[in-house]
Design brief:
Strand order of the largest sheet: 3-2-1-4-5-9-8
Structural class: alpha/beta
Helix content: 25-40%
Number of strands: 9
Radius of gyration: 16 Å
Shape: globular
Length: 215
């Protein structure tokens, strides 16, 4: 599979479900105090000048939460329909269309990166390139927050909200993701694994890694 194949599939999927997705997950963080605590801890680690990038921002709910924590943050997403929702609901924030695999920023420009359940459509063989790009874009010592579902078996979502689209949601082993980050030049600062919350529809453990650019 080429980069254009999975990027196109991801964009088509989220363009189709954007409005329904935004409605379904608008208040998601309000029901997840542990996730909010991790975002707060991450925000306190951001110290340098420059913006924080919320990569794969979707409808912008995490972008807005980070802005509320005082960060200079903007969102990036493949999906024009997701970005339309994000701009409509957060008119004071900046949202750009693009791929996290091709960050158009100078080296060391970003004060932080948040990748909140948005690397889950990137094939495993593309993860080294993804994390190398994150390393290049971040300032030395700047933090990365990576959130994903833990496990080995992908989840295939077919016809969500009645739309004729299908996409695989890839689950990862936290130790494998941590090793890839370290190979890319990151130093791990925090590894969190929490049990699935069935009250909000989770079916797998949730993993959160915080790392900093080490050089």
């Amino acid at each position: 599979m080429t980069d254009s194949d999975f990027l196109t599939a991801t964009r088509i999927f989220y363009d189709a479900v954007a409005e329904d997705y935004a409605d379904r997950f608008r208040a998601e963080l309000a029901a997840k105090p542990l996730d909010r605590a991790l975002l707060t801890a991450y925000a306190e680690l951001v110290s340098g000048p420059g913006p924080v990038a919320d990569l794969g921002c979707g409808p912008g709910r995490v972008t807005a939460h980070l802005a509320g924590l005082g960060l200079d943050v903007y969102g990036l997403d493949l999906s024009a329909s997701m970005l339309a929702v994000a701009r409509r609901e957060n008119p004071a924030l900046r949202f750009e269309q693009g791929s996290m695999l091709d960050l158009d920023v100078p080296e060391g420009h970003l004060a932080g990166i948040v990748c909140w359940y948005s690397s889950i459509h990137t094939p495993v063989d593309r993860l080294p390139a993804l994390f190398a790009g994150f390393h290049r874009a971040l300032a030395p010592g700047a933090p990365l927050l990576l959130a994903f579902q833990a496990g080995d078996v992908p989840r295939r979502l077919q016809h969500p909200f009645g739309h004729p689209v299908t996409l695989d949601f890839l689950r990862r082993r936290p130790e494998a993701m941590a090793a890839l980050l370290e190979e890319a030049g990151f130093a791990l600062r925090s590894r969190t694994l929490r049990e699935p919350d069935e009250t909000v529809g989770e079916s797998a453990p949730q993993a959160f890694l915080i790392a900093v650019r080490a050089d």
